[in-house]
Design goal:
- The complex is a heterodimer of chains A (230) and B (107).
- With 230 residues, chain A is mainly α.
- Chain A contains eleven helices and no strands.
- With 107 residues, chain B is mainly α.
- Chain B has a domain of 74 residues.
- The chains are: A mainly alpha (230), B mainly alpha (107).
- At the A-B interface, helix 2, helix 3, helix 4, helix 5 and helix 6 of A face helix 1, helix 2, helix 3 and helix 4 of B.
Chain lengths: 230, 107
């Protein structure tokens, strides 16, 4: 049963790879272009495992900004929304063995979170499924970066084909069928308005954090008001 | 391996790990309050929307509501497929094909 769940987690991640592999490949090319050796680029992907943070650091280094404090600050800022993702998953992973809990938390990505939460809403939580999804995302990122770092200069930029659209497509495939539930439709409407306004006015990934705090809170208050009136 | 590069990788790894492993320190075996459970229930839909909306409407960091925005056009197709057929692979595959076709047209 556990193996079946593990394989299902791996399988469900496959559509997402069309987005993460070109992204990792491009990251590998850019990391080498910023002065890292291919081995260092691969090590960065394995140890940091955060595409946005790696891109931000590499862009800073390419523009001549090698201030460590700035690199630390940008890494924390682009990863800050992970606090919300882990908080959301914590009721499910809190009883797992410590080592697995920490590995799963380290391997959290937006894609793994989306796939795992979708699975929870349909069949409940499965640690094997979560491990399968995390493993595929981690390995694909590492190998894609390695391929980019080693062979990138011979291949045209894969992101020019819009393959980074995979994640929005996956999120739409998960969220839209649930919009017939008025409670979820309310949350999504508030989140959409907040995310758009925040993305237009704030820098970095603050829009994720702000939306993650504002939308559930307003929805909860809204639910209480409606319940009270009825 | 050079010290400067190793230092950069090391501090980045540490910073990223703090945001991922930090919350676990506060989420021990204590049961969450009821309101916190309800709040967290609303979180996935909020985060999914927050991740998708800017990627669709601001692919070049400014608001682009036009047919030139391929992400928006492909998203409209994805929404229609998801709503009509409620099929994960059809939604992702169909909208990705639209995106690739639009990119191919502009090459």
């Amino acid at each position: 049963m556990a193996n079946k769940e593990l394989l299902q987690g791996c399988r469900d991640c496959l559509p997402l790879l069309t987005g993460s592999i070109p992204f990792g490949f491009t990251c590998g090319i850019m990391t080498v272009a910023a002065g890292f050796t291919p081995f260092e680029a691969i090590l960065m992907s394995m140890a940091v495992f955060s595409g946005a943070a790696q891109f931000a650091a590499v862009l800073m280094l390419q523009s001549g900004n090698d201030n460590l404090n700035m690199i630390i600050a940008s890494t924390i800022m682009v990863n800050l929304h992970n606090l919300l993702l882990i908080a959301s998953l914590s009721p499910y992973i809190v009883n797992l063995p410590k080592s697995i809990r920490y590995v799963l938390a380290f391997c959290i990505t937006d894609a793994t979170y989306a796939i795992t939460m979708n699975r929870i809403s349909q069949h409940g939580y499965s640690a094997s499924y979560h491990v399968g999804a995390s493993t595929v995302m981690y390995l694909s990122w590492t190998f894609a970066t390695a391929a980019g770092a080693l062979a990138g200069s011979y291949v045209p930029n894969p992101l020019s084909w819009g393959l980074d659209f995979t994640l929005p497509a996956v999120l739409i495939a998960i969220v839209v069928p649930k919009l017939s539930d008025r409670r979820i439709a309310t949350v999504v409407a508030i989140a959409a308005a907040t995310a758009l306004a925040a993305a237009l006015t704030l820098g970095g990934k603050w829009y994720i954090i702000l939306t993650g705090i504002v939308a559930p809170t307003v929805s909860l208050v809204w639910e209480r008001i409606v319940k009270h009136e009825n | 391996m050079r010290t400067e590069q190793l230092t950069i990788i090391g501090v980045m790894a540490l910073a990223a790990a703090c945001t991922r492993l930090g919350p676990l320190a506060f989420c021990r075996n204590t049961a969450l309050l009821l309101w916190a459970q309800k709040w967290l229930k609303h979180l996935p839909a909020s985060v999914f929307t927050a991740l998708a909306i800017p990627a669709i409407f601001l692919p070049k960091a400014y608001l682009d509501i036009s047919l030139d925005n391929h992400y928006l056009v492909a998203s409209v197709v994805a929404v229609i497929l998801a709503w009509r057929y409620k099929n994960f692979m059809l939604t992702v595959g169909g909208s990705m094909l639209v995106m690739l076709y639009l990119r191919w047209l502009t090459l």
